[in-house]
Batch of 2 targets.
Target 1
Amino acid sequence: MPELKLDRITKHFKNKIAVDNVSLCLKNGVYGFLGANGAGKTTLLRMICGVLKPTAGEILCNGSSITKLDGDYRYMLGYLPQDFGYYPDFTARRYLEYLAACKAIPRELAKEKVQEMLCLTGLESDQRSKIKTFSGGMLRRLGIAQALLNDPEILILDEPTSGLDPKERIRFRNIISSLSKGRIIILSTHIVSDVEFIADEILLMKQGRIIEQGSIQEVTASVSGKVWEYLADPETALRLNDTFAVSNLKNEDNQVRLRLVSDTCPCEGALPVQPGLEDVYLYHFEEVSEHVEHLERRTL
Ligand SMILES: Nc1ncnc2c1ncn2[C@@H]1O[C@H](COP(=O)(O)OP(=O)(O)OP(=O)(O)O)[C@@H](O)[C@H]1O
Ligand SMILES: [Mg+2]
């Protein structure tokens, strides 16, 4: 089973520090890197893949530097980049066969693997369609299929659910769960629900640093006693919404139920409630993640 060690990894772009002294030890399991735009997720993942060289620090796989391991390390990797490129005129099958050849997978095994991946990602019936006719969700699934062709021990997925609708997101989560045994899966997202149910460990990234790390229970415990619910009249709700970080608003008859994050009791009558990962995100990033914005937030 693989073990990845990041030893004081830093990346500078001119005078910008994109990743700042990150040390981690990753073993078997699903790791969800959660952070706002520009937090440094892609930069860190690209260094883990070996496509970007750190300014300082070292990445070790099973005790050896990934630079020294070179091809042996790449053979262990599957990578879905954030800006995954493809050939629009290829069919899905041909594209996967082509990439299998690039990864030096023997021909017979490649055929088998391509078929297996088409089934796993639900693209079997679309395998003869040209990629340019694919929806965003189908493209992401194709991206996951190519990353898995070599049965990688380390799977790195950068924003794998961007552009997916809720149904596709659930499908994606199920695929990841089915793959999670015996490998390291690293995925980055700014959508809490992507990692809430499947990650063994959550890593919150902000301004190039890991600011929280642990199981969902451990990470949510960090905001214990800071999440409140309050049933307010619409006018008070508006005022509270302007003053506090609100993670959810819900109309109930003529009143509004607010869920808000605050170090101290926001108003008399507010009750402390069990925190969720969404609340942790809001506490650290003071912005409502896309999930709440689109699915749960109700206008006043
Ligand atoms: N090639 C580059 N040259 C200069 N600056 C860069 C480069 N790549 C990234 N950066 C900067 O490094 C910081 C981290 O970027 P990165 O893409 O790693 O963030 P991210 O967490 O992946 O964001 P997003 O959620 O938008 O994908 C940003 O400020 C970005 O502008
Ligand atoms: Mg990114």
Target 2
Amino acid sequence: MIDVSSSIACPECGQLHRYQPIAQGKTAMCKRCGSVLYRNRKHMLESVLALTTAGLLLFFLSNLFPLLGLRAQGVEQDLLLFGASVAFWGQGYHLLAGLIVLNTIVFPLFELVSLMIISLTAKYGWKPGLAIFLFRWMREIKPWGMLEVFMLGILVSVVKLGDLATLIVGTAFWSFAGLILTMAAASSMLEPFVVWRMLGHCKERQHAVTT
Ligand SMILES: [Zn+2]
């Protein structure tokens, strides 16, 4: 008879395994298909906290400083991220303006704040209700975030407009590139199975305190 509370199913092939704690830096793999079941990363929560703090700093830099500058016939124009969406809205491209705001402001900020709250909750054993809600939604929303596509669009426009005017790559361009890398590193660092176990323990502790 399998003890379900200490079992883990492989996310790829469904093979059931008994959960066993592993040493730091080690990885538990599926015995059937070889997929990763969970990792015990060194300083996982501290690394995620450091990366999300850096990410928030880069996020504010990306929104406060110009993304691109355009110089043509003696006239220079700076473009801010939010300014781009306002300009598209003004020209009647409402859907495009909304997508820019969602992908460059709403989704990254939601993900960074969520990662921070989840890590802090797991680290300090806080009441886990909000962290559970955010972790679930973060994973639902993740496929819709298209930060990289937006960055690719900027690069294409830099190449295309380079013939027509002098382009100045602004501070926000580099901080935006850094933000993409930081967010990818932070979310890949967070091991879902380990985090869910930690949040589960927070819940049990809270339940034990209240009963
Ligand atoms: Zn498997």
